[in-house]
Amino acid sequence: WEAGQPHALKPLGLEALDMIRIEAGLIFAGYEFDDQVDPFEAGIGFTVGWDKADFVGREPLLAQKAAGPLTKRHLSFLLEDPEPDLLGTEPVFRDGAWVGYLRAGDFGHTLGASVGLGSVTCAEGVTKDWIEAGTWEIDVAGTRYGARPSLAPLYDPKRRRILAQ
């Protein structure tokens, strides 16, 4: 990467697209969203067409929506140390206790450190207060690194750049 800078080289290909989507918090079917994750847990509950048609799974989703805080959620993570590279599957810790794992990770060139999309659980609910009150770490090859979690994407969280196109 550094050797290419004087030549104005830019990342290209699937790896570059994956890096960009992880920074922007865009989930990918089969990685962050599968048959074990519902739309609310994946952060895409807004895509459910409640008024468009009846669909398989409607009643369980309505029950979950009415039950209170979700006990499992996807979060975006930014490592505090710019050195380690995240690849996905790394364990996620809150206040020293294991709470989940990364489903995808890559170095976020726009953000200057590795970024991950992870799935975390808490029996009392994964709420904004619970997220903000914790100390977060991600284990990279046996070493824990401080991380900043976010419910919103870390890059362009309000989607202003996408909407401006």
Topology of helices and strands:
Blueprint: H1 14-23, H2 58-66, E1 72-79, E2 91-94, E3 97-108, E4 113-121, H3 128-133, E5 136-140, E6 143-150, H4 160-164
Antiparallel strand pairs: 1-4, 1-6, 2-3, 2-5, 3-4, 5-6
User: How would you characterize the largest beta sheet?
Assistant: 6 strands, antiparallel, barrel
Order of helices and strands: HHEEEEHEEH
Shape: globular
Q: Which regions are unreliable across 5 or more consecutive residues at pLDDT < 50? A: none
Radius of gyration: 17 Å
The termini sit apart by 27 Å
Question: What share of residues is helical?
Answer: 10-25%
Structural class estimated from helices and strands: alpha+beta
- Give average pLDDT, whole number: 90
Q: Hey, roughly how much beta strand do the residues contain?
A: 25-35%
Q: How many β-strand runs?
A: 6
Number of helical stretches of at least 4 residues? 4
Strand line-up across the major sheet: 1-4-3-2-5-6
List the keywords.
165 residues; alpha+beta; 6-stranded antiparallel β-barrel; 4 helices; 28% strand
Verbal overview:
The protein has 165 residues and is α+β, with helices and mostly antiparallel strands. Helices cover 18% and strands 28% of the residues. The protein is built from 4 helices and 6 strands; from the N terminus they run ααββββαββα. Strand 3 (97-108) and strand 4 form a beta hairpin. The mean pLDDT is 90.
